[in-house]
């Protein structure tokens, strides 16, 4: 089955064609990072307008790269939510128009569910397909979604059964990365910049910087990154202010390392606890922050005990391939060629798949 997917929930206009839920023929992403960089974050109205300008050419490009025409498409999948409403609407309305005018069935996909499906994409990259002896397994796994908009720990019954174990009570982990980097004047998005700095060797004396590990001792699976962000800002003041820290390599590297270690410790400790409690030894780490090299290195050490899947970086940050992959599993005709589908900024993950197979 050839699925064409459209994703426009935040600041990436994306389209992709995936065959049989796993072979990615094209994965086109028009990123708006350069547009939003001067504001230090995503501006919803500007994002929505940029989606309108890009969506048609992005879909055309996805078809061209795949060497297919609309007539070869068996199904269209679109991100219905959650996300920025004005952004979601662009993708949903475009998908509806294509579906109705070309009589191609349309299914909606939850954005977070798409992230959680991303380890199944592309057998040639590191995901479940490669890690699992004998090929792809649809056994349950614990998924942790870490991105700019979300931090959720989920028990997944793949492809589309979800039980949320815990979420962030305030900032998402990627948002915390972006905000502390902005505080230091390092640029946007902050995650990759902080990751690079944290990987550097400490050039000077040990400053003994210590940041909290929020919610680590709590018995539940909730997260909080707002306090860590505040502790970071307080530490910056103690160390001599943002300008000093930014320009003093030794201080900057040690502060980034400590922030990164705090995030990694919280993420992996909660994930391990969930695997132990639910007697599941499979973990998928997904979302933009799953690109983090420090996190990947730390998780590799757990590979002896657990099966850990990281999607390839192009399937970690927002993309339409994950939407197309999961969309292949939808039971039709729930919303086939539906002109009544609505975008939903706060779509519920657990409820959005009732009626799906799997
Ligand atoms: O999944 P994504 O593209 O968008 C959302 O759905 O939010 O994730 C973007 C987030 C940003 O906050 C960015 O700073 C973070 O992912 N990110 C990283 C890294 N690469 C991207 N965070 C930490 N380390 C990285 N290497
Ligand atoms: Zn996302």
Tell me what you see in this structure.
With 358 residues, the chain is α/β, with parallel strands linked by helices. 41% of the residues lie in helices and 18% in strands. It is built from 13 helices and 10 strands. The strands form 2 sheets. A 5-stranded mixed β-sheet has the order 3-2-1-4-5, sandwiched between helices. Strands 8-7-6-9-10 form a 5-stranded mixed β-sheet, sandwiched between helices. Helix 6 (173-184) packs across helix 7, helix 6 packs parallel to helix 8 (226-239) and helix 10 (249-278) packs across helix 11 (293-300). The model has no long low-confidence stretch (mean pLDDT 91).
Going across the major beta sheet, what is the strand order? 3-2-1-4-5
Principal-axes shape call: globular
- What ligand species are in this complex? 5'-O-[(R)-(carboxyoxy)(hydroxy)phosphoryl]adenosine, zinc ion
- Number of beta strands: 10
Major β-sheet annotation: 5 strands, mixed
Radius of gyration: 20 Å
Determine the number of helices (DSSP H or I, runs of at least 4 residues): 13
| Unreliable sequence segments | none
Write the layout of secondary structure elements.
Elements: E1 2-7, E2 12-19, E3 23-31, H1 33-37, H2 44-66, E4 75-81, H3 85-102, E5 106-110, H4 111-117, H5 128-131, E6 141-146, E7 151-157, E8 161-167, H6 173-184, H7 190-198, H8 226-239, H9 242-247, H10 249-278, E9 282-286, H11 293-300, E10 307-309, H12 313-316, H13 321-327
Parallel strand pairs: 1-4, 4-5, 6-9, 9-10
Antiparallel strand pairs: 1-2, 2-3, 6-7, 7-8
Helix pairs in contact: 2-3, 4-13, 6-7, 6-8, 7-10, 8-10, 10-11
Bound molecules: 5'-O-[(R)-(carboxyoxy)(hydroxy)phosphoryl]adenosine (KG4) and zinc ion.
């Amino acid at each position: 089955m050839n699925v064409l997917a459209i994703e426009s929930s935040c600041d990436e206009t994306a389209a992709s064609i995936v065959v049989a839920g796993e072979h990615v023929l094209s994965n086109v992403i028009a990123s708006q990072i350069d547009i939003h960089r001067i504001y230090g974050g995503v501006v919803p109205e500007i994002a929505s307008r940029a989606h309108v300008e890009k969506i048609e050419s992005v879909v055309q490009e996805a078809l061209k790269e795949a060497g297919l025409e609309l007539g070869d498409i068996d199904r269209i999948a679109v991100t219905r939510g959650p996300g920025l409403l004005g952004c979601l609407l662009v993708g949903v309305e475009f998908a509806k128009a294509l579906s109705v005018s070309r009589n191609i069935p349309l299914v909606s996909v939850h954005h977070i569910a798409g992230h959680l499906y991303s380890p199944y994409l592309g057998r040639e990259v590191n995901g479940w397909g490669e890690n699992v002896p004998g090929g792809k397994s649809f056994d349950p796994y614990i998924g942790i979604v870490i991105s700019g908009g979300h931090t959720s720990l989920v028990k997944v019954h793949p492809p589309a059964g979800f039980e949320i174990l815990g979420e962030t009570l305030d900032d998402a982990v990627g948002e915390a990365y972006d905000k502390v980097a902005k505080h230091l004047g390092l640029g946007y998005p902050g995650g990759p910049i902080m990751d690079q700095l944290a990987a550097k060797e400490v050039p000077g004396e040990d400053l003994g910087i210590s940041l909290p590990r929020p919610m680590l001792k709590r018995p539940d699976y909730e997260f909080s990154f707002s306090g860590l962000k505040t502790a970071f800002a307080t530490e910056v003041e103690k160390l001599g202010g943002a300008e000093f820290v930014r320009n003093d390599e030794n201080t900057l590297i040690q502060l980034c390392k400590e922030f990164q270690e705090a995030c990694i410790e919280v993420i992996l400790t909660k994930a391990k606890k969930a695997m132990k409690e639910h007697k599941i030894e499979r973990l998928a780490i997904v979302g933009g922050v799953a690109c983090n090299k420090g996190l990947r290195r730390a998780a590799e050490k757990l590979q002896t005990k657990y099966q850990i899947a990281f999607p390839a970086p192009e399937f970690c940050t927002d993309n339409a391939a994950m939407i197309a992959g999961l969309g292949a599993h939808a039971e039709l005709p729930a919303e086939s060629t539906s002109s009544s589908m609505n975008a939903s900024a706060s779509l519920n993950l657990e409820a959005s798949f009732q009626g799906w197979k799997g």
